[in-house]
Structures are given as structure tokens and as C-alpha cells.
Design goal:
By secondary structure, the chain is of the alpha+beta class. The chain contains 5 helices and 9 strands, in the order βαββββααβββαβα. 30% of the residues are buried.
């Protein structure tokens, strides 16, 4: 897992992390109730994400996710690649253009095939705009980040409302974060969401939005 680094100089390059999270659909009412229940300091972000692929879909066909995200006023480029169920390798670096981030991401440990896959060039295909409320929760056997995201997914000239809760493991055991996430879901009536934001936005782009329901 990588940790958010607030010092801009330290954030120029970030080492590879292993992302393990559980994602749930939520109602606006559940969102508000969870935000109120998460006492203490919370972080607030304005997120604007653009997802990229090659014209031949060489990234998405391998379940690679290449994105540029504005986090408030910072531009962060990220590659995610699957490791196993629920977990993905994640590499990120501060960069204004995703095209300029490829070499940096590979230097950080991203799969070397990335440089080969993007030789034909990358194009923006879909995206998301949302507000995020994030809170670190320290439990007995793990530390998690609870993120409340509300906004829209975008693709193919269409938009899809976004309202979800992510529970991401920061330290500790997967069993502990699963237990916490499932208890949270039961308490607030959350539904499991097995598709990433990218996959749902990609479905919009391809005219397959019915699969998001």
C-alpha cells in the first residue's frame, strides 16, 4: 500500500504499492450518514480523472488502467495492473501529461511492457469527476482508509451518477479489512461494487452502460 505524501518534493516519485480495497455502491443518504459517523479529521479532495488507452485497446485488454487525475490542484499519473482478486499493483508519479509519465512509471517498477504497449500513442477515452471525503481508521488488526466518492462517470458523451464507498487496506491483514468493510456495508445497506470506476466509465464509452446497472 502506498501512503499519501503531503510534501510536494517527496511526491515527485512514489514507489510501487499494492492496492487492496473493497468497493460498495451507496445511496446519498448512506454517504451522509457514514461521513457523520467518521469522527475526527477528514481529508477532502476534488477529483477529475481522465483514463487513457491506445487505439487498439492494448491496455484495457490486459486490465491495465492508465490515468491522469487532478487531486485538488495536483496532477498525478497512475498505472494499475492486476495482481490477484481485489488487489492490484499501483505506481504513480506527479506529472502534467500522461504521455510524459510512461518512463517515470516504468522506472518506479511498472511492467516494462507498458513502454511497448503505448508506442502507437494513447488517447483519452473516458473519465470521472467526483468529490472525495477520506478518513483513516485505525482498528485492532488493521488500518484502513474509508473514501466516500460522489460525482459522475463519463464516457461516449454520456454521464452516470457515482455514489460509492471504498475501504482500502493501509496496513494489517486482509481478513481484518474484509470484516470491517462487510460490517460497514451491513450497517448502512451498501451493495458490493465489483467493477472499477474505469470499467464502468469504459462501458459508457463503448455504449454498454446497461452493464453498470
Amino acid at each position: 500500500m502506498y501512503n499519501r505524501v503531503n510534501n510536494p518534493q517527496e511526491r515527485k516519485k512514489l514507489l510501487m504499492g499494492i492496492e487492496y480495497e473493497l468497493k460498495f455502491r451507496a445511496t446519498p443518504q448512506a454517504h451522509a450518514a457514514i461521513a457523520q459517523a467518521l469522527e475526527g479529521e477528514q481529508a477532502h479532495y476534488r477529483m477529475e480523472t481522465t483514463y487513457y488507452d491506445t487505439p487498439s485497446e492494448s491496455l484495457s485488454s490486459r486490465h491495465f488502467t492508465l490515468r491522469r487525475r487532478m487531486e485538488n490542484d495536483r496532477s498525478v499519473c497512475t498505472l494499475k495492473a492486476p495482481l490477484d482478486e481485489h488487489s492490484r499493483g499501483e505506481w504513480e508519479t506527479e506529472c502534467d501529461r500522461v504521455e510524459d509519465s510512461i518512463d517515470m512509471l516504468c522506472q518506479l517498477g511498472a511492467p516494462k511492457i507498458l513502454s511497448h504497449l503505448v508506442q502507437e500513442g494513447v488517447i483519452p477515452i473516458c473519465g470521472a469527476k467526483f468529490q472525495r471525503i477520506a478518513k483513516t481508521v485505525v482498528l485492532e488488526d488493521c488500518t484502513v482508509e474509508v473514501a466516500l466518492d460522489a460525482g459522475v462517470l463519463m464516457g461516449g458523451g454520456k454521464e452516470l451518477p457515482l455514489c460509492e464507498v471504498e475501504v482500502e487496506l493501509k496496513s494489517g491483514t486482509r481478513e481484518a479489512v474484509q470484516a470491517y468493510a462487510l460490517a460497514l456495508a451491513a450497517l448502512y445497506g451498501l451493495r458490493p461494487e465489483r467493477r472499477s470506476k474505469f470499467r464502468r466509465a469504459l462501458a459508457l464509452y463503448k455504449g454498454e452502460e446497461s452493464k453498470n446497472v
